[in-house]
Amino acid sequence: MKIARTVDLTYANAPGPHLAVWFQGCRLRCPGCINKQFQGYGHEYPHTHTVRQLLGNEVGEAANLARRGVVLTGGEPLDQSTTELLELCRGIKRAGLGLTIYTGWTRAEIAADRWLCRLFALADLMICGPYQQDNEEPCQPLCGSGNQELLLLSGFYGYAELLKMPAGEILISADGSITTGTGL
User: Is the overall model pTM greater than 0.85, yes or no?
Assistant: First the structure.
């Protein structure tokens, strides 16, 4: 799996403390995307991880550090190998963690795919739909534009929790690189 960055503590991408995994590569390339640096498939971020590495290192550490869950974002998580993505999601759930997925795919596109539709049974929260910079007034928390859908798929998170989240965050890593959370 191509990983652009992991952040072991974020509060602006899902309710409570979470591990966030930004995947590298996105074929949608939405104009105005907040994570444009993660769209390319080249060697910008040459970090490749196996599912076993992600589950053993980052996800295992998240469970040990009492993180509430894992956020998969990008780039585009659904551009990864479907088999590996589903295996990663199953491992996150086995660890007892919540699962939030940000995707540019619509709910209908996911439902129509015989493999990816399984994400609905694994994820607790999904933000679906391509970012539209001409439609920037989000009508739901965590959404970047008004066309995006917020799907609460289980009872793991409540809508009231989403309303109490910070509007955004700026994370600066040890190497000086900056990552923004939602809402900025």
Answer: yes
